[in-house]
């Protein structure tokens, strides 16, 4: 054991309030016994604590907690009312989602009315006829083999890529995959590239793991690859968490021309690309470019393909594709995290996914989403507010820039009082910028709700603008 | 940022091989820019690295990695063939389970033939009639409200305990609950009490979080409460992970008389009791004592009630009961981990669980398991080997002591070659002891398989005993 581990341990317990200001620390001898280490190791830790002015020494008495140090890090630690201190885990997005509202534009999920419900229910029944003992069985931690086989065939057909069923792990949604990957790849202070803006839950997960987030600007033209190379050279990031296709929240697409180059950069600078591709099949006009994963020959891309969004949200199925070397630690992490995604949901997904009906559903869904996007754009355009956005060619969201003087947080506060919610831009930005941007999801509300909601939002934004009286910002 | 965080970061990267022996570290100036900290902070970290002989200094040149330090911690880091280093995550139990064998005594799961399969399938169909849009909906991270309501009513009826639906979180199996709790409660070097022996996956999870495991002996008479008080006083453990009812792997029951006292101790020493109670309803003769949770008034017990084992393993439903103060961080952790257990499995569970048929199933299941236990004991008794065990009054396992000179690992090696597996005792022990103990699960194999398997095991044990020729250990 190293003395710096003991140093950390003491600091943690001071922060938790186990030892308060002027409290005496355990003697070197007793702590050495407790931790089963040499006294010298504890002595070194105490010396370092003293050096850093965390503790002070009383002659012939011992070490005492400096009042400045005690309780300083209350932000990192959560004191619960009954005195149990638990680590604070942040989930800003889910906090917003927990608020029930009438006009729900914050959740990027598909309106259940757009799913072929009767067919789906019938399908489930068939599945239970095929596997009468389904409820009694576990999945392996890696995931159902039949499902992994099917996914290999599917990607072979659709992308001409050779995969074997050992190169897939099934997780409960893409978010679990991000969490597991960050647990096996990231240690505190590791640099991780993320797009700016990005998926807010990914920010929370990566930060929770202690990562230093290095933002990569994402524009309608893609990334600046030279800037990325500089960042990779300078920061040696362990991972680049990316969502290059119908990006959340912006809807942007990374051009095909940049994809191969980026994989080469990843290889050169030994940076794992975590490619989150949840919206791949939700295009409006033409199919998006091939995933980066298809250009990867050396195992630097981990591909997350969630089917949760549009196949069947209730099932929460995500496939993680990676080369064998990454799969092994991933399976071990999944084993410990929950020992495997429920078999029931995997089997239902498998049979639904390979059905004819599924393709028909997708086609209809794309049309329905496109109509909702159009309605939202129509209402936004009709408003006498100078907000701006780029028309998304797929996905579920419009990334809207409010006139500069309107704060998204203030607008959200007002909106919630009128039972309307959206995602404020700053929670999608590791730098906490994008204060005047909002993400509006058009996937959950129907056309009428979208029209009413957008009119409501327009009115609230206008009131805010008037209140702050910056007429020059309003549309002429 | 603290210099010791920078110290850790450098050590991690030396261990990963990012910097090898005699490689030059970044200059103080460049690292200070990189990490956005004061140069003095980096200087302090480098001084400490030098002091600990991790790096050496070349005059007017910089800091270089000491050859002794480089690559020393290969055990903590996993180098994958393509050069990506991923943290090694250990899951010993799941490694054993991954081996397909004919006689499977290592997995403590219920034989799917003992579940009312046809009824279950019919049930699922009914559920989809009730909720035709089920597949299109997500659960909240906390879990389905209807299910949480039902569980409150159930515990009110069965245990006369008042709960509200805000005091429950639904997780995907008990293992996820253990993982989430250790993530919010445990920091490196924290002391955690665990029974000896205990559930091997819990050892892996807690160790993965950096906990120091302090074993508590569990005997057929229960714990030694005075010893526990001494341990709590001395080590100030953050948590006691326990499985007091039909304990895994031993089958022991903590007597009712000790339960209330233990809760009082937990309160006095501010130690969270994590009570894993997966086998509560699987008793053979009489109901086990009330859970410790029922004695808790002040929020020191977190109660994990998995229904995965016997209601429907395919669903993987576990309910975590805790006071509000612990629930909040738990929901946040669950949000980040997977954003909620699939709604489909929660709704199916809910309707099955409250059915008449469920109670009938449980009754039959108890009888069937008891018969299997009897058959296993019969065969073990008939063998001319001096192995010993305590008859379990519930649960799924027999905890068997081999004659001392037979190593469970060697027996397992032999057994796997004859397509038979079990859990060797040492992986259930944080101290890596119990080298001559094995856990035999009687829940998955049928009576014929149990008879054949036990005869096979007897033969292999006898051969091992003969090979090492310690006739005195054999039964007279």
TrEMBL record, chains A, B:
<dbReference type="Pfam" id="PF00392">
    <property type="entry name" value="GntR"/>
</dbReference>
<keyword id="KW-0805">Transcription regulation</keyword>
<dbReference type="InterPro" id="IPR004839">
    <property type="entry name" value="Aminotransferase_I/II_large"/>
</dbReference>
<dbReference type="InterPro" id="IPR015422">
    <property type="entry name" value="PyrdxlP-dep_Trfase_small"/>
</dbReference>
<feature type="domain" description="HTH gntR-type">
    <location>
        <begin position="1"/>
        <end position="68"/>
    </location>
</feature>
<comment type="similarity">
    <text>In the C-terminal section; belongs to the class-I pyridoxal-phosphate-dependent aminotransferase family.</text>
</comment>
<dbReference type="InterPro" id="IPR015424">
    <property type="entry name" value="PyrdxlP-dep_Trfase"/>
</dbReference>
<keyword id="KW-0804">Transcription</keyword>
<dbReference type="InterPro" id="IPR036390">
    <property type="entry name" value="WH_DNA-bd_sf"/>
</dbReference>
<keyword id="KW-0238">DNA-binding</keyword>
<keyword id="KW-0808">Transferase</keyword>
<keyword id="KW-0032">Aminotransferase</keyword>
<dbReference type="Pfam" id="PF00155">
    <property type="entry name" value="Aminotran_1_2"/>
</dbReference>
<dbReference type="InterPro" id="IPR051446">
    <property type="entry name" value="HTH_trans_reg/aminotransferase"/>
</dbReference>
<protein>
    <submittedName>
        <fullName>PLP-dependent aminotransferase family protein</fullName>
    </submittedName>
</protein>
<dbReference type="InterPro" id="IPR036388">
    <property type="entry name" value="WH-like_DNA-bd_sf"/>
</dbReference>
<dbReference type="GO" id="GO:0008483">
    <property type="term" value="F:transaminase activity"/>
</dbReference>
<dbReference type="InterPro" id="IPR000524">
    <property type="entry name" value="Tscrpt_reg_HTH_GntR"/>
</dbReference>
<dbReference type="InterPro" id="IPR015421">
    <property type="entry name" value="PyrdxlP-dep_Trfase_major"/>
</dbReference>
<keyword id="KW-0663">Pyridoxal phosphate</keyword>
């Amino acid at each position: 054991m190293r003395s710096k581990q003991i140093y950390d341990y003491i600091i943690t317990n001071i922060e938790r309030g186990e030892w308060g200001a002027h409290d005496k620390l355990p003697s070197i001898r007793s702590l050495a016994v407790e931790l089963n280490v040499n006294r010298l190791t504890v002595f070194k830790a105490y010396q370092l604590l003293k050096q850093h002015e965390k503790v002070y020494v009383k002659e012939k008495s011992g070490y005492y907690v400096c009042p400045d140090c005690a309780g300083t890090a209350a932000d990192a630690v959560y004191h619960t009312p009954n005195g149990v201190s638990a680590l604070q885990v942040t989930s800003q997005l889910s906090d917003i989602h927990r608020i029930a509202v009438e006009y729900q534009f914050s959740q990027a999920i598909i309106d259940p009315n757009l799913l072929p419900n009767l067919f789906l229910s019938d399908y489930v029944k068939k599945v239970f006829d095929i596997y009468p003992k389904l409820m009694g069985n576990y999945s392996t931690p890696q995931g159902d083999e039949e499902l992994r086989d099917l996914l290999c065939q599917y990607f072979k057909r659709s992308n001409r890529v050779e995969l074997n069923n050992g190169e897939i792990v099934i997780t409960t949604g893409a978010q679990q995959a991000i969490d597991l990957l960050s647990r096996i790849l990231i240690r505190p202070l590791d640099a991780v590239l993320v797009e700016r803006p990005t998926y807010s839950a990914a920010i929370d997960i990566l930060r929770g793991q202690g990562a230093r987030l290095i933002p990569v600007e994402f524009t309608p033209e893609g990334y600046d690859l030279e800037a990325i190379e500089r960042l990779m050279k300078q920061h040696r990031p362990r991972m680049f968490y990316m969502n290059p296709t119908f990006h959340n929240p912006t809807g942007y697409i990374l051009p095909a021309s940049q994809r191969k180059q980026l994989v080469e950069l990843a290889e050169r600078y030994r940076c794992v690309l975590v490619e989150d591709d949840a919206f791949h099949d939700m295009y409006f006009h033409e199919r998006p470019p091939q995933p980066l994963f298809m250009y990867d020959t050396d195992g630097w891309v981990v591909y997350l393909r969630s089917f949760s969004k549009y196949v069947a949200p209730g099932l929460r199925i995500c496939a993680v594709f990676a080369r064998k070397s990454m799969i092994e630690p991933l399976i071990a992490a999944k084993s410990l995290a929950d020992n495997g995604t429920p078999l029931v949901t995997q089997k239902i997904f498998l049979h639904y996914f390979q059905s004819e009906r599924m393709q028909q559903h997708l086609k209809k869904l794309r049309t329905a989403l496109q109509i909702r996007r159009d309605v939202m754009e129509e209402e936004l355009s009709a408003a006498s507010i100078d907000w701006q956005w780029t028309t998304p060619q797929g996905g579920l969201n419009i990334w809207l820039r409010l006139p500069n003087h309107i704060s998204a947080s203030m607008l959200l506060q007002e909106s919630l009082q009128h039972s309307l919610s959206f995602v404020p831009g700053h929670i999608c930005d590791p730098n906490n910028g994008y204060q005047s941007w909002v993400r509006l999801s058009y996937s959950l509300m129907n056309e009428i709700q979208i029209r009413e909601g957008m009119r409501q939002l327009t009115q609230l934004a206008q009131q805010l603008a008037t209140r702050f009286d910056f007429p020059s910002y309003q549309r002429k």
